[in-house]
């Protein structure tokens, strides 16, 4: 979908490109997902190199993604997004405390 000549991501269809408080933007989620997948793929390729050298590349990719994708989606990304939300919430509290004249604790 486009607005004002710019392509919008699926979660940016709301008015003024704003997302709900506490929800990471599509850009943050993409970075978090990459940070979760890259190390798992690197480790998986290394481990699979020990026993799957003779396998066709498509079979290696199938086995690797069959392990990496569920681990990433169900375990790692939710925890990274939770950590991100806690960090940004803490920063927001500190920022509001400074703006209101109170010291942050």
- Our count of domains comes out at 1
What fraction strand?
A: under 5%
Number of strands: 2
- Average pLDDT, rounded to a whole number, is 83
Task: Write down the Rg.
Answer: 20 Å
Order of SSEs: EEHH
Number of helices: 2
Largest sheet: 2 strands, antiparallel
Specify the overall morphology. Answer: elongated
First-last Cα distance: 44 Å
For the biggest β-sheet, the strand order reads: 1-2
| Residue runs with pLDDT of under 50 for 5 or more positions | none
Q: Helices and strands: which structural class?
A: mainly alpha
Helix content: 55-70%
Helix-strand blueprint:
Elements: E1 2-3, E2 6-7, H1 26-48, H2 57-99
Antiparallel strand pairs: 1-2
Helix pairs in contact: 1-2
Describe this structure in words.
A two-stranded antiparallel ribbon has the order 1-2. The model has no long low-confidence stretch (mean pLDDT 83). A hairpin with a 2-residue loop joins strand 1 and strand 2. Helices cover 63% and strands 4% of the residues. The protein is elongated, with a radius of gyration of 20 Å. Helix 1 runs antiparallel to helix 2. The chain has one domain. With 105 residues, the chain is mostly helical. The relative contact order is 0.09.
